[in-house]
Design brief:
With 186 residues, the protein is mainly alpha-helical. The protein has two domains: 60 residues, Orthogonal Bundle (434 Repressor (Amino-terminal Domain)), CATH 1.10.260; 101 residues, no CATH class. It has nine helices and no strands. It is elongated and about 75 Å long.
Length: 186
């Protein structure tokens, strides 16, 4: 396991920031950043929080408490959404099972999983409302293709997004990727 200073230094460089830029953005002393990166001191809670905010990471991820970094599992989590093609509500059930089993063991899994689950719940509700609206309109006014086009659009979106985000999570640090309207899972 790398020391905290080394991790922060790598993240700073990955974000393309100099020590001075990080110090200015985090509103901390440049010498503080230098001491932390050289493992001469351990940042206090507030200082670490400010630095992590600038680097766009969670404090838990940088301290990681024995968590491992496993991008393969993050890719599987994204692709598990596609279970909806074979199993009704599989887009929620399978990711939920994976998320509950690994959220405390893999860096970024908790945040990514909650982001996926919130999007999938929203998507499922939107799809259900659209289908119910379509059924009502069909009985009342006859067949209206606009609803069918929207339903097909929803399916295409829920196939393309997980594949694209799975590829992205294989190359970079997990982040909030899916748009979230409802935040039911935290």
């Amino acid at each position: 396991m790398k020391e905290l200073g080394q991790k922060l230094k790598e993240l700073r460089k990955k974000n393309g920031l100099s020590q001075e830029e990080l110090a200015d953005a985090a509103k901390v002393n440049l010498r503080t950043i230098q001491r932390i990166e050289n493992n001469e001191s351990v940042p206090r809670g507030k200082t670490l929080g400010l630095i992590c905010e600038v680097l766009e990471i969670n404090i838990e991820d940088i301290l990681d408490f024995g968590k491992e970094e496993n991008r393969k599992h993050l890719i599987y989590l994204h692709l598990s959404v596609l279970a909806f093609l074979a199993i009704p509500l599989g887009n929620i059930i399978l990711p939920l099972i994976l998320w509950l089993s690994k959220k405390d063991r893999i860096i970024g899994f908790k945040e990514t999983g909650s982001n996926i689950l919130n999007f999938q719940i929203t998507w499922t509700i939107l799809l259900g409302v659209t289908i119910m609206g379509h059924i009502f309109i069909v009985f009342r006014y006859g067949l209206r293709p606009e609803f069918l086009y929207f339903i097909m659009f929803l399916y295409v979106v829920n196939i393309i997004l997980p594949i694209v985000f799975a590829f992205k999570s294989g190359y970079r640090r997990p982040a909030k990727m899916y748009p979230t309207i409802l935040r039911l899972v935290k």
